[in-house]
Amino acid sequence: MEDNKTREEAIDKLRSLIKDIQTAMLTTIDGGLLRSRPMQTQETETDGDLWFFTSSRTHKAEEIEKDNRVNLAYASSNDNSYVSVSGKAELVKVNNICAVANVDESVCGRVRIQLFVGV
Predict the structure, then answer these.
(1) How many structural domains compose the chain?
(2) Residue 115 banded pLDDT, cuts 50, 70, 90
(3) Beta bridge partners of 43
(4) What does the pLDDT read at residue 96?
(5) Which domain holds residue 95?
(6) I need a surface site. Which of 54, 107, 113, 119 has the fewest CB within 10 A?
């Protein structure tokens, strides 16, 4: 029970630190090399999952399919706060969102990142 409370507290702290930071640097692994690119956080769930939109036909999608270990780095120069968290990414097809956005369903999806949050 103590571990769950500690994880919940860590997730709450993470959510409060990144709530005003729109863009994160998502780092993936590509053949042993690290690749980073900016991604806009779409949603942060209470269980620590973070959601991003992406096309399923991108290099990052291919990299996540091969090795789902990722890192996210957030930075705010306004208050000098910096956050780096690691986790596992999963590509999730969300067809109803594709239709609303008028995007071809074969290339539309979301990336869910389940974080390794610790204290």
Answers:
(1) 1
(2) low
(3) 51
(4) 56
(5) 2-116
(6) 119
